[in-house]
Amino acid sequence: MSKRFDKEVFIESVKSNLKTLYRQTLVDATKQQVFQAVSYAVKDTIIDNWMETQKVYEEEDPKMVYYMSMEFLMGRALGNNMINLTEYKEVKEALEELGFDLNVIEDQEPDAALGNGGLGRLAACFLDSLATLGYAAYGCGIRYRYGMFKQKIENGYQIEVPDNWLKDGNPFELRRPEYAKEVKFGGYIRVEYDEATKRNKFIQEGYQSVRAIPFDIPIVGYNNNVVNTLRVWDAEAINDFQLDSFDKGDYQKAVEQENLARNIVEVLYPNDNHYAGKELRLKQQYFFISASVQAAVAKYKKNHSDIRKFYEKATFQLNDTHPTVAVAELMRILLDEEGLEWDEAWEVTTKTCAYTNHTIMAEALEKWPIELFSRLLPRIYQIIEEINRRFVEEIQKKYPGNQEKIRKMAIIYDGQVKMAHLAICAGYSVNGVAALHTEILKNQELKDFYEMMPEKFNNKTNGITQRRFLLHANPLLADWVTEHIGDEWITDLAQISKLKVYVDDEKAQQEFMNIKYQNKLRLAKYIREHNGIDVDPRSIFDVQVKRLHEYKRQLLNILHVMYLYNKIKDHPEMPFYPRTFIFGAKAAAGYRRAKLTIKLINSVADVINNDKSINGKLKVVFIEDYRVSNAEWIFAAADVSEQISTASKEASGTGNMKFMLNGAPTLGTMDGANVEIVQEVGEENAFIFGLSAQEVINYENNGGYNPMDYFNNDQDIRRVLMQLINGEYAPDDPERFRDIYDSLLNTNSSDRADTYFILADFKSYAEAQERVEKAYRDETGWARMAMMNTACSGKFTSDRTIQQYVDEIWHLDKVTVEA
Ligand code: 26Q
């Protein structure tokens, strides 16, 4: 399919890049320079396919999806691009001949961390699948100058360090000034009657504006010559004022516009599952949406004359509510610039926009104060007011006299603009991201909307790309799988179920577990180099890596570690299988309790790792700066996947799927996609514990949960909690962890004590952990279980997810691109 890789040509290209970029030869070049030179050589191949793909799109005019997202957590590009070009091994060999280790070269690349966690990484996996399946797609986002912060751990505390990911230049991006768009903020709207059209014209005046400049990043499909585009927008000042003729007002405005442009794309908000009502955040949202929608309309108009059929060629998928101003921006363009009537414009808009919900956490819901919203986006606000007026009318028609419905469903209410309500009202599809999550949306969170418009609601269980998270992340296992069942799993993960015939095969079991062991060695080396901690690769690697959030319950995990440590100290003779508890997590910079939890984990680690008396039976490791690139190694090395969120709180989870694919059974609650994982792999191949989602919801609705009961009646729990405040892990400041203790036992004004049911689930979790230990002692049993997890992971490819989006929501046309 793709052009044959020519080693000589490739090497020449690397050499010539070194020369033109850096005036360097191979012998003198730094590793960073070699990385750049190799990347430009790879980009060369990509560009041909990129142009060819865009030509096919021009000719065949397929319907396109615009995946609108504030976040794209791409990670590194070089390795992934080589994988998808099917040139990875060839390049590796070529570089070896030149005396370079490809792993070391790949390691020079900073992660493109333009996202927080699950939602951003999902967007990245979707782009990979869209290109691989041959669908025309644009990712639309922001080119943040600083992505997700780098995490340093100092004295056990998280320190945030700016992520200057562009400092050496990004070899894969392409600046496209010819597609720049102007985006306007603020000012006021002057209404003017237009005799010619007999309509009011709405003219924005006294505004500030910035120029949005697109940077295009290639998204390489696997072995199919398709290259799609991730388009991220940079902001530049518009300063066409004349130096000789400006008065004081012009000068002031010019400076303000410079600042606006600089600030707008400066940094990603590092909040995960938490809404911060910051003006700059709303500016970011409108900035990239206005530019993207303008570009999508312009692209359509190049080849089509009737804007009323826009939706036949374009669909906008809104990645959570963050891009929901797209609804009003599309309306604005259709009404004010294209001259459509309201009903015509509304039809186009509601056939174009679709919305994905990623959370039921109340604190993540976007509600903008009217004052802020209307000041920043005056015309957009007018349009939303009219959308709301008509929507409220509809509600009244359906539920006459029912004020309650209006209070609960209106888009504008109580001085706030509710973005989820706008997205549901204007979207033709509303989807959750796992079966359980979608059911909770329909029956609890969005019940009123579901009752009014049931046809909009649907489920799309998340997925992950096996190309990055197995083929690239775990080459040993990838090769082993291919040896046994062929390589079709790379683009058809359902094939991986063919491994089931090997789960009882002793040789296969040994090979599988030996690969796991090699990956554990690789991770142990990483931990030694980065944390200075020695871990025993024969111990159980029990891993929880994800954003730090109370609902994800890293606290439950570390409290259990404290409990185990107590047990080992009390009963040194007790048989105990060595365990290594591995954590990785960033806390939002302003999330006090999350940051204190990191300190707790590190304090417990300090005590336990330095206690010679326990003979290394227990180790605790906090991996600094958990991110996509080191995640790849971590998943490959995990024995146990910790997915222990309070049931009903984790919409889906996607890390759970990456562990499963790499042969790590889930230790988890019946939450999010865990439910479907258990369905696929069988209960006997997972370790499930804790309250069900319904039980949690019942407690939340009816009360009756009292964590003090557990404190009073269970001495193990009481002892662990007392250790939070007796200086056991904070001899220099015994009060350090008081807030965590209080959060579990003391009701404060806003929250019930132990909001996330940690004490309720503690015993059940500890028992599940005992089952893990017992299962791990049975070597064959464990090998079988691990292999079953890999073999049953077929459903969780993002290729399946994307195919469902295409079939049930987007209805895109498939394309093929010849080399
Ligand atoms: C909103 C307003 C202002 C500032 C920040 C935000 C904000 C930013 C990020 C709100 C939420 C997020 C991220 C949410 C997220 O990552 N959700 C996760 O989405 C995954 C993909 O669907 C799911 O697997 C996870 O369960 C869900 O938590």
UniProtKB/TrEMBL annotation:
Its cofactor is pyridoxal 5'-phosphate. Its EC number is 2.4.1.1. It comes from the Bacteria. It catalyses: [(1->4)-alpha-D-glucosyl](n) + phosphate = [(1->4)-alpha-D-glucosyl](n-1) + alpha-D-glucose 1-phosphate. Keywords: Carbohydrate metabolism, Glycosyltransferase, Pyridoxal phosphate, Transferase. It is an enzyme of class 2 (transferase). Belongs to the glycogen phosphorylase family. PANTHER family: GLYCOGEN PHOSPHORYLASE, GLYCOGEN PHOSPHORYLASE, LIVER FORM. Allosteric enzyme that catalyzes the rate-limiting step in glycogen catabolism, the phosphorolytic cleavage of glycogen to produce glucose-1-phosphate, and plays a central role in maintaining cellular and organismal glucose homeostasis. Phosphorylase is an important allosteric enzyme in carbohydrate metabolism. Enzymes from different sources differ in their regulatory mechanisms and in their natural substrates. However, all known phosphorylases share catalytic and structural properties. This is Alpha-1,4 glucan phosphorylase. It comes from Hominisplanchenecus faecis. The lineage of its organism: Bacteria, Bacillati, Bacillota, Clostridia, Lachnospirales.
